[in-house]
Write a structure and sequence with these properties.
Largest sheet: 6 strands, mixed
Distance between the termini: 18 Å
Radius of gyration: 20 Å
CATH topology of one domain: Nucleotidyltransferase, domain 5
Structural class: alpha/beta
Number of helices: 11
Strand content: 5-15%
Order of helices and strands: HHHHHEHEEEHHEHEHH
CATH architecture of one domain: 2-Layer Sandwich
Number of strands: 6
Helix content: 40-55%
């Protein structure tokens, strides 16, 4: 099977369409009497995945491009307003599809997970912050990796070494990373199923994942934490692996930001930001799923799909 965007889109659409037909409860409810949508939910989600992979941050520009280049694949395309509204309503469906595709990958059962959080900036000017509908969720935080303050959210991501998302959460910029990880662990069925066979899972994180109570909790859940020692602590086991493996999560974040434009989401309200973040996570998951099933050596490579 070829690895290009058309092949990925066709395979993803076929999988999504079959899944949504088998699980109609996963799509937004519609009145039984009325006008049926001219583009199905599976088609619209496929369109959204292609938008993320091709790097179109403007929905209006993307739809203009699609009308010119993708008419053979999508005979009908909605207007920008309709596309935006449908996408926001479909974010729970996209979230569910991420979980299904994750479990369809052979690499989902890897013994090693990496965890980190990365900023998702939502505004810069004081006037925008003051008037933004994101106020109350978005907040000021500090990004140590880039030595800067920002106003927005944090994406907390647990993934395999291949970059396959296992669990994730969007929180305010000041949310505690340890508590967020515990919430992800408790609220992500896929993480429980991966650990169902009783084997010990290795989790690699940075210095922020510390504390006797936190380590005891995840140890009881069957997870062994590897992290660098904090100031004043004794050297910890596995320290020689931290630098190369920590670079992996930085590389995964760079894929989300550099190739999938995570920080250029363009969302103005909570539902819009959430839908756009999930859209990008779904695009990365779909690419890894397709690469896994076509036998590609680098599962997270998007090079074949970004043009």
């Amino acid at each position: 099977m070829e690895t290009d965007l058309d092949t990925l889109a066709t395979a993803f659409y076929a999988a999504a369409d079959d899944l949504l037909k088998a699980h109609p409860e996963r799509v937004p409810a519609r009145p039984r009497i009325g006008i049926s949508p001219r583009i199905t939910d599976a088609e619209l989600i496929t369109l959204a995945v292609m938008q993320a992979l091709l790097g179109f941050t403007s929905e209006a520009r993307w739809l203009r491009h699609a009308r010119t280049a993708l008419r053979t694949m999508f005979p009908y395309l909605p207007g920008q307003s309709g596309y935006n509204k449908r996408l926001r309503r479909l974010f729970p469906t996209m979230n569910w599809l991420i979980g299904v595709l994750t479990e369809w990958n052979d690499i989902c059962c890897d013994d090693v997970w990496v965890v980190d959080s990365t900023p998702v900036e939502c505004a810069r000017s004081k006037e925008t912050v003051r008037r933004s509908e994101m106020a109350g969720w978005a907040e000021y935080g500090y990004c140590a990796s880039h030595s800067r303050y920002f106003w927005g959210l944090r994406l907390h991501l647990v993934c395999t070494l291949h970059g396959l998302p296992i669990g994730y959460a969007l929180t305010g910029a000041k949310a505690d990373e340890r508590q967020t990880f515990l919430d992800i662990l408790a609220g992500t069925p896929a993480m429980a199923r991966v650990r169902a066979d009783g084997h010990r899972q290795i989790l690699i994180g940075d210095r922020n994942y510390y504390g006797a109570g936190f380590e005891e909790t995840i140890d009881q859940a069957g997870i062994e934490l590897l992290r660098p020692a904090r100031t004043g602590e004794e050297p910890r086991a596995g320290s020689r692996f931290f630098k190369p493996l920590r670079q992996i999560i930085e590389s995964i974040n760079d894929t989300l930001k550099g190739q999938l434009d995570l920080e250029h989401h363009g969302g103005r309200i909570p539902a819009g930001v959430t839908a756009r973040i999930i859209q990008r996570l779904l695009a990365m998951t779909a690419a890894i799923w397709h690469n896994d099933h076509t036998g590609q050596a680098v599962r997270r490579s998007l090079t074949a799909y970004d043009h």
